[in-house]
Amino acid sequence: MRRSKTKLLVFPVLSLMLTSCGTMAENSQGNQNQVEDEIHATGITLKDDAITLYAGETYQIEYEITPNGATEQEVVYTVNNEDALTVSETGLITAKQYSGLTTVRVSLKDRPGIFAEIKVTTRRRTLVEEINVSVSRLDFVFIGQTKEFAYTVLPINAPDKSVDIYIEDTTIASLNQNLNEVTALKNGSTNLIIKSLQSGSNVEVIIPITVTDDELDEVVADPSLDPTQYLTYKELVGTGGQDILPSTASRENPANVLVVPVEFSDVTFDDAYGVENGEERIKSELEIAFNGTAEETNYWESVTSYFEKSSFGNLNFNFDVTDVVSLDVSTDDVLERRTDVETIVSDAFESMKSSNSELDFTKYDYDSDDLMDGIWFIYSAPDYGTDPSYYDYASSFWAYVTYFLNPEADIESPNLCTYGWASYDFMYRKGDDRIDAHTFIHETGHLLGLNDYYDYSNTRSPLGLYDMQDCNVGDHNVWTKTALGWIDPIIVDTSENIPAKVHLNPRENGGAIFITNDYSGSVFDEYLVLELYTPNGLNELDSATAYDSYYGRMPQESGVKLYHVDARLIDNVQGGRQVYYDSSSLAEGIPDHYVTIGASNTYSYDRNFTVELFEQIELVSSDPNGGSYQRRFGPYSSSDFFQTGDTFDMDTYKSFTYRNSGNLNSGDSLDIEIYFTNVSEEGADLVIVPLDE
Q1: 372 vs 375: CA distance, rounded Å
Q2: What tens digit of pLDDT does each residue of 648-660 get?
Q3: Distance of alpha carbon 548 from its chain centroid, rounded?
């Protein structure tokens, strides 16, 4: 019975145990699920386990925690040498100026035993400390003006000199493709920024930019600054005892000049023309050559019509052609040197006076100094100067002007002073039906006191040939016109009135700009001179038809010509060369002794009174290396003109300056820049600004 009772007691216990076991199973399953949700990290994997950084460089640590989905994700960074580098809370390593190996540990925040390490080798390097810019500010005075700048990243041994260059407001100014030039676009202010891109460097430079186009004043011609107010060409030549033609004369009271045809005993005008009325023909055709209209010449201009146009009506001539004077000498007497031209001319002059005893010679004394201002002699012999067989005697039969010094003043029975001498056949270079006055016009320029502008040795061409006093073609240049009192140039004195804008118009009284450092009030000084060339007016014929096949035609394109003029006066009374007369003292009166222009376009001591052998007037090519005419004998071309968008400064164009000095012959520097903003046949707009300090 006891046994059976025991069995009965087992079941409830068992039942309780089963119940208890069931509950434990359920709890165990719940715990198991909880463990499975919390995946613990077992390791950290780094993208790189070793890197090298130079001072200032940075590196962002990248890592993965394994296994994927581990609960622990927060890490901390520690470095074993804080002198070598720093690590931010986000894992950004920044290298310091330190050379060596340093370890950076990446470990779990809550389980520091799980970690990975990166070996960092740091190296010293030179950081950018300064950016040195060639300008401190950029000030523009007109839209379209450009300025260059340069920069240097310092120190020189900085390994990374890369920079970012930009303009804050690109509507006010723009950068060129090379990032070294700024162009003004509109009025306003902004900044040019140059910033170092080197890691660890925060160096940047701010260059202020201002554009004030509306504040630029225009400089115009001022008649009160007349460069001939103190000394005219006639007065200058007069200091040496020579009298010449006046350079200004009205239509109502023109400058009267005698033209005397002379014939040799063996070559009369009948012989020259092959007719019986040669004397009448020469008088008739000299009348056309000197006094006729352009239509009457059937070719170009007469001497009178040319100078009336070139001078803008300020110089009017009347030439009186006399009867032919027959000489008692032959051409052989001259060629074989049995007589000279001076004697022939003197005899012809006396013969002319005796056969014209009723002539009122005061008519030919425009300045009332009891001297005839000038006279022309046209001879009947051919132009032997072009015949190689007469080369040694060419000077006697070439067209030229010369003079007798200090003649006795007696206008009632005048003495010969300045005269021109030329062959009649200079008129017929273009055929018998056309009368060509080119040579007579050139030589009349000498009767006005002008020098030749060509080099007598023909080794180079300072003025590029195309000028009336150079190669006998086209118009006179604007310096010549100013020196003769025909135009009022625009005077730009760099010590007073720049920056400035200037407009050139050759149809408005010549259109000339003189640029000087300190205006002396006289044309006889040193200048940069600008004019607008156009292939019309007095240039039209010689730009359409070659006056001489060797030289070709003048350019048919328009453009600005820039000249360097050195017309400073030499004071010869002090003896020797290169003693300059102070042009500013001309305001005190005309010198009472001989002074003359020192420079010449001919490199010889019989022409050039300067030791340095400066040119009197030279054309400056738009090519900074110089035009071909400056290096050899030959003409300039339109490629030597300055056009829209061109700029000029003395340093860039120093090839034309003496010994490449970049200065004027006087030693002065013109610290200016000329911008050619708009150049066309109708006119030229220029802006002249001081160079940045």
Answers
A1: 8
A2: 999 999 999 999 9
A3: 30
